[in-house]
Amino acid sequence: MALILYQRDDCHLCDQALAVLAQARLPEFESVFIDGDAALEARYGVRVPVLRGAAGQELEWPFDAVAVAAWLDAAG
């Protein structure tokens, strides 16, 4: 499953999300910084961090390792 974590520079919530993803032992994911991208800022703005799966499903902050695992199981 291709995973993307949308985040911002200097975002303490994004730092917390990265720690949760490490705790959840998430498989590889891509980090995409929305700063400076008008389309991504319009879509994600203050919602970051957001984890997005290959099928377009999204997990919005706040989440913990248990929620990440459940989300991954549901996504297949």
Helix content: 25-40%
**Uncertain segments:** none
Number of strands: 4
CATH-wise, what's the superfamily? Glutaredoxin
Major beta sheet summary: 4 strands, mixed
> What is the CATH topology assignment?
Glutaredoxin
Q: Give the tally of structural domains.
A: 1
Strand-pairing-aware structural class: alpha+beta
Strands of the widest sheet, in order across it, are 2-1-3-4
| Strand coverage percent | 15-25%
Per the principal axes of the C-alpha atoms, what is the gross shape? Answer: globular
First-to-last CA distance: 8 Å
Question: What Rg do the Cα atoms give?
Answer: 12 Å
- Rounded mean pLDDT score: 95
CATH architectural label? 3-Layer(aba) Sandwich
- CATH class placement: Alpha Beta
SSE order, as H and E?
Answer: EHEHEEH
Number of H- or I-type helical stretches:
3
Organism: Stenotrophomonas mori
InterPro entries: Glutaredoxin-like, Thioredoxin-like_sf
Protein name: Glutaredoxin family protein
Pfam families: Glrx-like
Q: Which secondary structure elements does this structure contain, and how are they paired or packed?
A:
Layout: E1 4-7, H1 12-23, E2 30-33, H2 38-44, E3 50-52, E4 58-60, H3 65-75
Parallel strand pairs: 1-2
Antiparallel strand pairs: 1-3, 3-4
Molecular structure report:
It comes from Stenotrophomonas mori. This is Glutaredoxin family protein. With 76 residues, this protein is of the alpha+beta class. It has one domain (4-75): Glutaredoxin. Helix content is 39%, strand content 18%. It is built from three helices and four strands; from the N terminus they run E-H-E-H-E-E-H. It has a four-stranded mixed beta sheet, with no helix packed on it. The radius of gyration is 12 Å and the shape is globular.
